[in-house]
Write a structure and sequence with these properties.
Helix content: 40-55%
Largest sheet: 4 strands, parallel
CATH superfamily: NAD(P)-binding Rossmann-like Domain
Strand order of the largest sheet: 3-4-5-6
Order of helices and strands: HEHEHEHEHEHHHE
Oligomer: single chain
Radius of gyration: 18 Å
Number of domains: 1
Number of strands: 6
Shape: globular
Distance between the termini: 28 Å
Strand content: 5-15%
Length: 251
């Protein structure tokens, strides 16, 4: 489980641990990683916590191999990376686009490719990629996310088609406004632009949702736990939004 020291990644790690799943987590921030490791150990499962930057060459494969060495197998991959900076087309230089592709597309592709041989050997596996509702529609201020996440969605769909007969499912989970640090950052950007307090921007985010509230991380992690289970064996190639009805597209 990558990028699992805080936010949605941490919520998913805790959800799976409560279901009795031994978990391997990684993140760049060692302090946050160790805090999550301590919380996971309270659930009485085995835990591997590895400080690592998945954008570095060989890092995704190293994390997967360390997981297999620790637990002897790899059944579930939750591929998560932090979202790229918010902004518009005029905000970024060419290097920013290249960095978004490297960290938000290629890191997830590399994680999947590293995990795949182990799942194929077992003829069973669950690949769950955390994306964004930008996989479904553009979102104002999220130019880099829309670009990179669309590539992730295309990769996941193509991969699911190729390996469905091998007992391995591949699905994307597309969060909308889930109350995490990233949402607070986006709300702060609005406050900086308008001069209104952060609390006002957060309430406006609530009001903009059909559900009239933002989601909680546990509401997303429950879906991930289901997709990781045997009961979800006939669900593959899907991109499922968890967004309180915010996505307007029909498909």
């Amino acid at each position: 489980m990558s990028a699992s020291s805080k936010g949605l990644g941490r919520a998913v790690a805790l959800e799976l641990a409560r279901e009795g799943v031994d978990v391997a987590i990684c993140a760049r921030s060692e302090a946050a990683l160790r805090d999550t490791e301590s919380a996971l150990r309270e659930t009485d499962v085995r835990v591997l916590a590895m400080p690592i930057d998945l954008t570095e060459a060989g890092a995704p494969a190293a994390f997967v191999e360390a997981t297999v060495a620790e637990f002897g197998r790899l059944d579930i991959l939750f591929a998560n990376v932090g979202g790229p900076p918010a902004g518009t087309v005029d905000t970024f230089e060419l290097a920013d686009y290249e960095e978004a592709v490297n960290s938000n597309l290629m890191a997830q592709v590399k994680m999947c490719l590293a995990a795949l041989p182990h799942m194929r050997a077992a003829r069973w596996g669950r690949i769950i990629i955390l994306g964004s509702l930008t996989m479904k529609q553009p979102v104002e201020g999220l130019m880099l996310s829309t670009m990179a996440r669309s590539g992730v969605a295309g990769f996941a769909k193509s991969l699911s088609d190729e390996i469905a007969a091998e007992g391995i499912t591949v699905n994307c989970v597309c969060p909308g406004r889930i109350l995490t640090d990233r949402i607070r950052t986006l709300a702060q950007m609005r406050s900086d632009r308008t001069g209104e307090p952060l609390e006002v921007s957060l309430k406006l985010f609530d009001a903009d949702m059909p559900a009239k509230r933002m989601g909680q991380p546990e509401e997303l992690s429950a879906l991930v736990a289901f997709l990781a289970s045997e009961r979800a064996s006939y669900i593959t190639g899907a991109a499922i939004q968890v967004d309180g009805g915010w996505t307007r597209s029909i498909t």
